[in-house]
């Protein structure tokens, strides 16, 4: 599968320094990570895989004390870092090791802009190299040691092909005139920052469905969430594996007073009530007398687009029709034209010239260049055909007749 390419295991500080010196000056390096997000309270990077044109490397951050030498490679503008679906790996490496990135190339973004049917890494490797990747270790607990040979083969397989894959995709992108657009998208991805757990007293409001609860139910839910969060942290387990969100939401609404009543909200045969029943009943009672204020909801990962009134939809529909027609004609992913969030911002601001369009949040240079005038034409046509506002009518006061004596 990997031919004669050697695998270098990096398990101490000296080995990392040597590996970095070996990679320094390489024109291109494949990069990937493995984490333990399905197995721990606070996920962490457990492996960093790298591949240059000569060999594959697997760095073990759980054994290496100082990962900073690797950061010099990540921020080197002369070395292309090739990743697939780069945003998660980038924010994880920034979070855990304070790395910075320059000159990133994302093979998934490239596949989207080329309109490939399958844009997963396994799809691309099978398409261009005829090799089928076994993804059975995708949710493996990568914090466990020792690493077996099959784990190492799986891990290096995610970077071994990346340098060659980038070369192929870049040829396709140049042919289609899409390379500049992809590189701009990659430059935006490399600036992403971690937006996960921040330890706010409003974190319980991040649970889907929590904000729909009435205030008394929400106070109970907060106490249930706080119990689960403390237990998950103590056990170093993901919260959702300890007690599902849906179970806590049901308890917050039903507020059972006994284990027998609580079992109606649990899965049949579940051990949750047996293990946590007494503590959950206590949390429910604490929530019933909880007088703490409900904090403001935390900001969502995706900033919500402000609506500009009923006129927004008038622009949004033709913009979506234009986008969908262009996607079908070019045979690309919608993100290679314009996502819904951007179209909503354009509809909200209704720009009248290219400078106004350039000020729309989220607009890219390649979008302005490739179809800025088309978008302005659509907005202008809608504006021209918009009905004139009806003149306001002042209500005339009716004079009351004087009462007769």
Any chance you could write out the topology, listing elements then pairs?
Layout: E1 7-10, H1 13-23, E2 28-35, E3 45-51, E4 56-59, H2 68-74, E5 80-83, H3 86-97, E6 104-106, H4 107-114, H5 121-129, H6 149-160, H7 162-176, H8 179-189, H9 215-235, H10 239-242, H11 245-254, H12 259-262, H13 272-288, H14 312-330, H15 340-349, H16 354-358, H17 365-385
Parallel strand pairs: 1-4, 2-5, 5-6
Antiparallel strand pairs: 2-3, 3-4
Helix pairs in contact: 1-2, 4-7, 9-11, 9-13, 14-15, 14-17
Quickly list its features.
6-stranded mixed beta sheet, alpha/beta, about 400 residues, 17 helices, single chain
Could you please describe the fold and organization of this structure?
The chain has 405 residues and is α/β, with parallel strands linked by helices. The chain has 17 helices and six strands. It has a six-stranded mixed sheet, with helices on both faces.
Q: Which series of helices and strands comes N to C?
A: EHEEEHEHEHHHHHHHHHHHHHH
Number of strands: 6
Portion in strands: 5-15%
| Cα radius of gyration in angstroms | 28 Å
Q: Mean pLDDT, as a whole number?
A: 92
- Spatial strand sequence of the major β-sheet: 1-4-3-2-5-6
Q: What is the SS-derived class? A: alpha/beta
N→C terminal distance: 109 Å
- Give the low-pLDDT segments: 301-308
Q: Helical amount among residues, as a percent range?
A: 40-55%
* General form: flat
Largest sheet: 6 strands, mixed
H/I helix tally: 17
């Amino acid at each position: 599968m990997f031919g004669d390419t050697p695998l270098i295991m990096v398990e101490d500080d000296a080995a990392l320094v040597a590996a970095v010196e070996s990679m320094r000056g390489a024109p291109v390096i494949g990069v990937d990570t493995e984490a333990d997000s399905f197995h721990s309270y606070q996920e962490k990077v457990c492996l960093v895989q790298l591949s240059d044109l000569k060999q594959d490397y697997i760095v073990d951050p759980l054994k290496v004390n100082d990962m900073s030498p690797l950061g010099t490679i990540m921020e080197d503008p002369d070395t292309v870092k090739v990743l697939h679906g780069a945003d998660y790996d980038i924010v994880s490496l920034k979070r855990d090791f304070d790395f910075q990135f320059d000159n990133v190339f994302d093979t998934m973004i490239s596949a989207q802009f080329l309109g490939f049917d399958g844009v997963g890494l396994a799809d691309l490797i099978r398409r261009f190299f005829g090799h089928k990747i076994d993804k059975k270790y995708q949710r493996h607990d990568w914090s466990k040691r020792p690493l077996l040979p099959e784990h190492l083969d799986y891990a290096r397989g995610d970077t071994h092909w990346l340098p060659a894959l980038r070369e192929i995709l870049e040829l396709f992108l140049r042919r289609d005139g899409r390379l500049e657009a992809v590189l701009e998208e990659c430059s935006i991805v490399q600036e992403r920052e971690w937006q996960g757990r921040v330890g706010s007293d409003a974190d319980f409001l991040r649970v889907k469905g929590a904000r729909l609860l009435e205030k008394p139910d929400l106070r109970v839910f907060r106490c249930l969430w706080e119990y689960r969060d403390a237990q998950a942290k103590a056990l170093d387990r993901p919260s959702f594996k300890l007690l599902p969100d849906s179970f806590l939401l049901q308890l917050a609404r039903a507020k059972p007073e006994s284990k027998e009543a609580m079992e109606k909200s649990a899965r049949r045969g579940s051990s949750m009530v047996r293990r946590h029943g007494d503590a959950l009943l206590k949390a429910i009672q604490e929530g019933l007398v909880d007088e703490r204020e409900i904090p403001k909801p935390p900001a969502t990962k995706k900033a919500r687009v402000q609506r500009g009134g009923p006129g927004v939809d008038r622009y949004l529909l033709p913009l979506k029709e234009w986008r969908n027609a262009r996607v079908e004609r070019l045979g690309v992913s919608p993100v290679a034209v314009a996502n819904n969030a951007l179209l909503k911002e354009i509809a909200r601001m209704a720009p009248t010239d290219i400078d106004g369009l350039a000020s729309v949040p989220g607009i890219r240079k390649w979008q302005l260049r490739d179809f800025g005038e088309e978008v302005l034409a659509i907005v202008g046509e809608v504006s021209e055909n918009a009905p004139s506002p009806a003149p306001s009518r002042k209500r005339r006061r009716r004079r009351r007749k004087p009462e007769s004596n």
